[in-house]
Amino acid sequence: MSTKKLLPEEVSKLEGFQARNNELVVNVGATELRIDALERQKEELLEKFQDLQKDQAKFGQDLQEKYGDGNLDLEKGEFTAAE
Known about the structure:
Layout: H1 8-67, E1 70-73, E2 78-81
Antiparallel strand pairs: 1-2
């Protein structure tokens, strides 16, 4: 088997390819970690949103039991009974 020496510019070019490849692999990994963190954050926020909706619905029921059917004017803080 015969061995031949690569030219320095060929070795340099191959090393450049390897360095760029390594950098891309690291960046893909870092991106995947950020995506995972964002997905977990999204799930937490969706859970909080669902809790908020439940709290709003419960409070709406409480107000309806207290005041009956009607309309609320949040700006004035007034309730107008339905006729």
